Structures are given as structure tokens and as C-alpha cells.
Amino acid sequence: MARTKQYFIIYKPFKVLTQFTSEDGNPGLGTIFDLPRDIYPVGRLDLDSEGLLILTNDKGLNSALLNPKNSHQRTYWVEVEGIPTETSLDALRNGLEINVKGIYHTLPCEARLIESPALAERDPPVNYLKHPVRSWMEIRLVEGKNRQVRKMTAKIGHPTLRLVRVGIEDLSVFPLQPGGITQISEKVLYKKLKLI
């Protein structure tokens, strides 16, 4: 009998691994969510990153979403040290060289300064005494190399303090809060991801 495909979106909290098992003292998703054994994350978010993650038992979705040829746009809200200039933002937009197993030239992306978003406080919060001057950016990418956004902001001289993935194509993490989960239908999910 064919298993029923299931789809969930979650708001992965800070310092939680993108796997169900805990490791090296870091909690896994299994410490927060009680889901069937065949459900797994599509893609990943770094331990230090927060936000939108899709969980499913649909292997077809995994290959469709992670295939670089499909160029799915991912939206991140990024709190950085300092305030990037328009010249620095242009460097991000035009693509720059970062180290990803050797020198890699990032694809063009969208980058702009935004007002401080109304997000739940991170636990633990950013050390604002250590980083008194901060700003928020919205970055939209169609690729997802390892720690790419962090490497990009560091390259322009504005290290990332907080990184939240808020969307993939038309799929948004909101209104979920950190640790939140909701089930979504295949049709709605595929439509929001522009796979149909």
C-alpha cells in the first residue's frame, strides 16, 4: 500500500540541528516535534540559523526543490554588524567571491536594507552591547551553498549576527513562531513553491 504523502512547515529555532537526533550537546528537531519516522527535512538550515524548513516523506519534492536547475528563490532576513552602503549592497547584488571548498562566485541576488522586523526575540539574544550598531537586510538568493549568506555579508565587511529564512518562493514561515509547526496540503505547497 502506498504511503500517504505528508507535508509540514516549521520555524526552526536558533541552535537546533536540522536533523531529528541530537548531537554534540545540540538538540535535534526530535526534541521539539513528534512526527512519523518517515518524515525528514528538505534541505537544511545551519545550527545558528532560524526559520522556514519543510518536512516531508515526499522524495520527489526533495529532488525538485534542491535541484540547482530549478533556481528556487529563498528569502532571508539578516541582521548584520554595521550599516552596509549602497556600494556594499551592489557587491552582493552583482555576485562576489566566497570560499566554498575553493573560490566560488555567487550568482546575482536581490539585497536591500529593511526596517527592523517584528520577530520573536532569539534565545539567547544577540549581544547588543558587543554589537551596538546593527542593521537588517533582506537577501533573496536562488542558490544555497554552505553558509553562503554569512560568507557574503562577511565579505562586504558586515558579519551576520542573526539569520532567518522567511520564505521559499511564495511559501512563508509566518505566522509561525520559533518552534511552531503546521501541516500543509501537497497542492498548496507545490503551488507556493511554483512546482505546478
UniProtKB/TrEMBL annotation:
Signal peptide start and end residues: none
Coiled-coil-forming residues are: none
Name the domain of life: Bacteria
SUPFAM superfamilies to which the protein is assigned, alphabetical: Pseudouridine synthase
- Which InterPro entries does this one have? PsdUridine_s_RsuA/RluB/E/F_cat, PsdUridine_synth_cat_dom_sf, PsdUridine_synth_RsuA/RluA, PsdUridine_synth_RsuA/RluB/E/F, PsdUridine_synth_RsuA/RluB_CS, RsuA_PseudoU_synthase, TruA/RsuA/RluB/E/F_N
State its Enzyme Commission number(s): 5.4.99.-
Similarity-based family: Belongs to the pseudouridine synthase RsuA family.
Tell me the PANTHER family matching this sequence: PSEUDOURIDINE SYNTHASE FAMILY PROTEIN-RELATED, RNA-BINDING S4 DOMAIN-CONTAINING PROTEIN
Q: Please identify the protein, giving its name as recorded.
A: Pseudouridine synthase
Taxonomic lineage from the root: Bacteria, Pseudomonadati, Bacteroidota, Cytophagia, Cytophagales
